[in-house]
Amino acid sequence: MPPPSLAAVVSSMPAGHANGVSGDARRRGSSKKVHPAPPTMMPDAADAADIAVGGGGMGKNGGLDGWWRRKRPEWCSVAGVAGVARRHPAAALFACGLLLFMGVEYTIPMVPPAAPPLDLGFAATAALHAGIAARPWLNSLLAALNTVFVAMQAAYIVWAILGEGRPRAAVAALMMFTCRGALGCATQLPLPAEFLGSGMDFPVGNVSFFLFFSGHVAGAVIAAEDMRREGRRRMARLYDALNLLQGVRLLACRGHYTIDLAVGVGAGILFDTLAGRYLDAGASPPVSRCCSSCHKALLSQ
């Protein structure tokens, strides 16, 4: 048989006794401790006043010093900085680079207006430049080989859209060359004084010579990125190696400044990414491998 409830027991007691029991219960309930709310992330009134007037630790909770000790981020200590460097070595390296070049920026001498541009890539390839300049046939041979590599890039990008129905590399190349032409018109850098031209180079005779940035390098990066997406990693590595040799040849022949080559790599990656986002926004269904379907898919996107 279950025990009687507390209400039933109280109702069966005499009136005075029942009142005493209920009063004891009320007193016990009122004696319970009420825990304060957890502290917020903002300083209290005393700390805020100290912080405002620069109290320097005279508030009831230590003022600015005490508040900073309680609220400072984890990385604002020697152990915290060591932990960040251990978990994010690349970010730590770039942070050191920022500090380094902040000092370089205020101490490096500028090139005088009448002096030729200073290019460390030109200095590194000075001996190779002298050898090519002394052998015109070698200059023409290297230019012809470079033109063949450019044709290989173009052939792969055209095959990707016409033969395999994948327009991303073609869209990236169109974006890249359009941007390169606009930048080449907007800021025309002087042709290097030691430039070694060749009729075998592309474009033939360097009719439209834009220096910034390197379309040769950017086109090779776009093609190599497409190969990686398709699992053609050996071919991508081959294109990367040929792109590196192409960069050395362009520096030795003074066909590009070093910054043109570096930005060409970044431009290839950037426009490949933008082309992917552009095509993903269209969200069209997969296309077949026939050329007519490729054209329809490209126009619909």
From TrEMBL:
Residues 118-277 form the AtPDCT1/2 transmembrane domain. Keywords: Membrane, Transmembrane, Transmembrane helix. The chain crosses the membrane at residues 90-108, 141-162, 169-191, 203-224. The keyword Transmembrane helix applies. Residues 13-43 are annotated as: Disordered. GO terms for molecular function: diacylglycerol cholinephosphotransferase activity. It holds the Pfam family AtPDCT1_2. InterPro entries: AtPDCT1_2_TM_dom, PDCT1/2-like. This is AtPDCT1/2 transmembrane domain-containing protein. It comes from Leersia perrieri.
